[in-house]
DNA sequence: GCGGATCAC
DNA sequence: TATGGTGATCCGC
C-alpha cells in the first residue's frame, strides 16, 4: 500500500507541524485541506492523545534548539576542516558508485482496501478503509479525497467522511494474495526481498541479462478473459485489456486523476527504449528492457490478482523506493543507470521522500534550511559536526543518490514481542493477569520459531500515552510462559511499587523477549557439548580467546577492510563486543564453552592471580553431581568428574553466562569534538557562520597542505575508534563456591576500577528429595523445572541485591540454609547485577543537554546493503 | 545492558 | 467513547 509515512504526515504533520506540504487537490466531492485540518483538530483537541503529542513536539523543539546552539558555536575554521574531511569521504563514495544493478521496488496500491473492494463489488464506488474505529490500516483513493488516511483513527475518519465504510481487516486473505504476487516476483528474482505483504525489492540484473536472448515466445502473455479460472467473478474490465494494455485496472482507480496514466506513456524516461508491447489479438509481448520487465510484472500481477501495483526502477534500493511512489497508483518510473540521471532526479527531491527520513528528522533538517537533497548535500560539512557519524554518512549517501545495490537476505530475528491496547486497567491484580496472558501468547509465538532468549522487556503505556519500557537480562535463556512471566512480573511489580499508592493507569502493556543466542553462540555451544561429552581437547582459543602470559586479553576487532561499508564495520564491532562479553564467561571460570569442566578449572586457575591458597587444594564442587568435593587435589577432583560424567543434571552447564563490562563503550561517532582546538590552521577568524557561509565553502578545493591535515585528522579518528574499545581484563582474585566473589575490572583507560559484588553461582539447584529450595529466599519452590527454578533464584537474588544496595550494605545477600546441601557448579559467575531504574512517575522527561543526533533507523541496512 | 526515541509498514 | 502492533536501530547512559 502507499507509504504510511506520507499518510501520517498529511494527518499529523498538518495537524501539528503545519508543514504545508499537502498537495491534496480537493475534488468536487472531497474536502480541501483546510476543512480536513479543521475537522481533525476539532476531534483531537483536548484529548490525552493530543496532550502527549504536544509534549513530544516540545521535546523535539528542544532538541532543535540545542542543535541550533551547537551550530552557533561552530567556527568557520572547524567547518572548513569538516568540509575537507567530508569531501574526502564523498569522493570515495563517488568513486565507488555502482550503477550496474537494476533494482525494482514493487508496491501494491492501497493493498488491503483493494483486496476488499475486489472481493465485494458493493464497495466498488464507495470510500472505504480497512481497520477499526480506533485505527485504520489503509484507505482507498476515494476515501483519501476526504483526508482519510492510514494510521488515522476510524472515528476521526468518519467525521471527515460520514459515508466511509470501515472494513475489518482480513489478514489471512491478504497473505494469500501476497503469496500469489510473490510467486510472480520470484520468476524475476528468486532472492527478492519482501518488506511486508504489499512491498518488495527485486534485483533484476541477472534476469535482464538472460532475457536479452529470450525468444518472443517467452515474453508473451495471454490476456485473461472475463471468466478467469482463478477468480469466479466476471470482470468486464479485464476485457479492456485487449483494447489497450495501458487502460487496465480502472477497477480500483476509477477516481484517479486521468493524467496519472497517460495511455502509451507510462514512463517519462528512456524514450529511446520505448517499444510498446505488441498487442496481439489476445496476447501481449513484452520487450527486453528493464521497463518492459516491470510492465510485465505488473501486468502479470494484475492478471493474477486483479490488483494493481506501482513500481520504481533504479540503480539502488533507496532510489527505487522513491521512484515507486512517483507514478502511484498503477504506474512505474525509472531512473536510468547514469550518474546524471540520478543527480537530476535527486536535485529537487524533498528529503522526506526518502525512506528513513521521518517526521522528526525532517523537522530538524528543516531548521537548518534543508528541505531538498541538494540542500542536504550543500550542508554536508555542517551536518558532520552536528550529527553522529552514522547519521551524516547516511545523509551524505542520500544527497548523492547512493543506496544499497544488492539485496541481503533477512538476518536472524532479534526480538519477538506481544503488546495490547485496552481500555484503562488500574488494578494491580488485573495488570498481573494481563501480563501473564501476554507472556503466554509470547511463549506460544516463541515456540513456533523455537526461540529462547535472555532479555525480557515489558512495555507500559499509561492513559496519557506516556510509554516506558523496563528490561531484565538473565544468565540463561528462557522461553516458556512461566519463565518469562516470572521475570516480567517482577519488572511490573517494581513499576507498581514505584508509584504506590497511586495505581498505574495503563492503556497498553507489552512483553518482549530478546538476546537470542546468535548462530555463532549456538555453534560454540554445540562444540562445547560435543567436546564435553567426548572429553575432547579444545583449547580456549576455540572460543576466540587469546592466552597471554600476564593477563587475559581479548581480541579486538581486526582492522576492517576499506571495502566494507561503514555499517559492516559497525556490525562487526557489535559482534566483537558481544564476543567480548561472551568470552568473559570463559575467562571467569564458568567454562561453559569449553570442552571439559576440569580442564577449565585448570586453565582458569592457572590464569587467575589467586592471592591466596594455591589451586592444588581447593574446595571444588563437581559440575556434574553438584556435590562439594572438599579439599582435594585437582587431580583427584578431575577423576571424580570423570566418574560423574554421564550423570544427570548437566543441561544447565551449557547455558551461557557472562559478566559484562559496563566500561566497554562501543561507538565513537563524532569525527572530532566541537570544543576541540584546531591546530594547523593559522589566523582564522572565529566568527559565527551561517548556512550561506557553508554553501560558499562547498566549492573549496583541497590544497595539499590541507589534505595533510585531513590525513592527520583521520588518523586521529581511527585511533579514537580503537580507544573506544578498551581492552578490559578481569582478574578474579577469589571465586569459591558458596562465597562472595571479588571481581576486579581493569580498564586501561580508567585505571583500575574495583567492584565488590556478591555474585552467586548459577544452577543453584538446592535439591532435597526432589524439592527445589531457593537459596535466597529459602522457600520451597513448587516447580520441578530447573530453568524456571533458576529464573526464580535470579530474580530473588536480584531483589536481594537491590535491597542490600539500597540499604547501603555490603554483606552477602544470603546465607544458605544450613540444612541444605551447598549449591553451585564450579563457581560460575552470575549476571551483572544492575539496579533497575525507579523513575518516580511516567511524566518524568529527561532534558537533553546535548544534541541528540538523529538516528536513521533500520532501513539503513537495506540502504547500505 | 537499559531506556527513550525514531522509523517503517 | 475513541489514536495499533511488531520489529529494528541508534544514542547516551
UniProtKB/TrEMBL annotation:
EC annotation from Swiss-Prot or TrEMBL: 2.7.7.7
User: Where does this polypeptide localize?
Assistant: Nucleus
Location, primary (coarse class):
nucleus
Q: Which residues form the UmuC domain?
A: 103-358
Q: Write down what this protein is called.
A: DNA polymerase kappa
Catalytic activity, reaction form:
DNA(n) + a 2'-deoxyribonucleoside 5'-triphosphate = DNA(n+1) + diphosphate
Assigned keywords, A-Z: Coiled coil, DNA damage, DNA repair, DNA replication, DNA synthesis, DNA-binding, DNA-directed DNA polymerase, Magnesium, Metal-binding, Mutator protein, Nucleotidyltransferase, Nucleus, Repeat, Schiff base, Transferase, Zinc, Zinc-finger
Q: Which residues form the signal peptide?
A: none
Q: Bias regions of kind Polar residues — which residues?
A: 821-833
Role description:
DNA polymerase specifically involved in DNA repair. Plays an important role in translesion synthesis, where the normal high-fidelity DNA polymerases cannot proceed and DNA synthesis stalls. Depending on the context, it inserts the correct base, but causes frequent base transitions, transversions and frameshifts. Lacks 3'-5' proofreading exonuclease activity. Forms a Schiff base with 5'-deoxyribose phosphate at abasic sites, but does not have lyase activity.
Q: Which residues form a coiled coil?
A: 57-99
Residue ranges annotated for the UBZ4-type domain, each copy included:
619-649, 771-801
Entry annotated with the keyword Ribosomal protein: no
Give any GO molecular function from the UniProt entry: zinc ion binding
Give the cofactors, semicolon-separated.
Mg(2+); Mn(2+)
Query: Would you say which domain of life the source belongs to?
Result: Eukaryota
Q: Which InterPro entries match?
A: DNA/RNA_pol_sf, DNA_pol_Y-fam_lit_finger_sf, DNA_pol_Y-fam_little_finger, DNA_polymerase-Y, DNApol_IV, PolY_HhH_motif, Rad18_UBZ4, Rev_trsase/Diguanyl_cyclase
Give the species this sequence originates from. Myotis myotis (Greater mouse-eared bat)
Q: Which GO terms describe its biological process?
A: DNA repair; DNA replication; error-prone translesion synthesis
What is the enzyme's class at the highest EC level?
Answer: transferase
Q: Which family does it belong to?
A: Belongs to the DNA polymerase type-Y family.
